Amino acid sequence: ASDERLFTQSGVVFRSRLRFDVSFIPRGAIVNTAELSLVRDPATSRLNRFTPDSLLLMGTLVSATDSSRVDGTIASGRISGSAADTVKFDVRRPVQLWVAGNNNGLLFRNSATNELSSFSLFSFYNERASSLSARPKLRVRYAVEKEVGNR
Q1: Tens digit of each residue's pLDDT (9 = 90 or more) over 72-83
Q2: Among 19, 50, 80, 96, which residue's Cβ finds the most Cβ atoms within 10 Å?
Q3: Taken in order 2, 138, 40, 60, is the CA torsion positive or negative?
């Protein structure tokens, strides 16, 4: 069902939004690594010979209401290798911004080259996917400064 998918399509410049609750990370923590994994649905993806690249982008949203306002923090991922149905993004910087208090999520889109040159449709499972293993995963490692008592 389409309510179980995230889509990004070139030509018509269709993009999806993705948000994770990171309230479990203490304020002031330093995010060491943050990796987002998305599982592609090959049955609903439509790539063709005019798709120059499988590069996908995640932009950090600045506004909760305006999905065109993305800051300069971009994470990229590419469909490649033996795990061609999984794309991983390094989202350390966006997660660090979220911990600081500005969590409007990510904008999922095609690369600029793809958005204007083809009608490629990338389809990935979202948080409502019936299979738990297909849902987006965010792995975060962070550090918190240890407080030292008075002596």
Answers
A1: 667 777 665 445
A2: 96
A3: positive
| Ramachandran bin of 28, using left for φ above 0, alpha for ψ from -120 to 50, beta for the remaining angles | left
- Residue 64: count of CB within 10 angstroms of its CB: 13
Are 114 and 81 in contact by the 8 Å Cβ rule? The answer is: no
Structure-derived torsion over alpha carbons of residues 65, 33, 126, 63, reported in degrees to the nearest 10:
0
Nearest to 16 by CA among 54, 83, 67, 74: 67
For tokens 């790539």, what's the residue? Answer: 47
Distance CA 130, CA 89 (A): 23
Distance (Å, rounded) from C-alpha 46 to C-alpha 9? 9
SS (H, E, C) 79-126: CCCCCCCEEEEECHHHHHHHHCCCCCCEEEEECHHHHHHCCCEEEEEC
Measured CA to CA, the distance from residue 122 to residue 105 in angstroms comes to 19
H-run or E-run covering 8: strand 5-9
